Amino acid sequence: MNARRSLVWLGLTPEPEQELPTAVAALRAPAPGRPPSALVAAERHRVQRLVLRGTQRGWLSYLREVTDLVVEAAAESAAADPRPALVAGEVVLDHHRMLIGLPGPAYARTAAQRRDLEGALARLRAPGCPGPDGRFEPGSTA
């Protein structure tokens, strides 16, 4: 490891490592329902590799991919299960908000992602859409 390499970004929160692999695998799965265990394992391995051997730039690039998946899921039909997108979106949005406390330009660089995630999460939480816990939001029609 390079002695000059900043590792401060690793101390933000463990939630992305814990929550994203399953949620992202579900968003990437070719069919609705529970994602195949091989897809979850591959996503978990990718996150682990980024955290153990990656850089903040690589990590933020991965989170950009996750943001794109969440935005895409929010734009799709309401028939799809929004829970994986809600989990992934909330985790990434929380992460990006915490970047304000770190040195460097990461917080400013993720401003567009925060905006996109806030819009996508609002659409996913719209009445009639269950929340991340599976319960319907107040004012929903279900």
Structure in words:
The protein has 142 residues and is mainly alpha-helical. It has one domain (12-124). It is 60% helix and 0% strand. The protein is built from six helices and no strands. It has helices at residues 15-28, 37-53, 56-75, 83-98, 106-109, 111-124. The chain is flat, with a radius of gyration of 16 Å. 31% of the residues are buried. Mean pLDDT is 82; it is low at 136-142.
The largest pleated sheet is described as: none
Tally of helical runs? 6
Order of helices and strands: HHHHHH
Please tell me the total number of domains: 1
In short:
The protein has six helices and no strands. The protein is 60% helix and 0% strand.
Topology:
Blueprint (H helix, E strand, L loop, with lengths): L14 H14 L8 H17 L2 H20 L7 H16 L7 H4 L1 H14 L18
Helix pairs in contact: 1-2, 1-4, 3-4, 3-6, 4-6
Keywords:
142 residues, mainly alpha, 60% helix, 0% strand, disordered C terminus
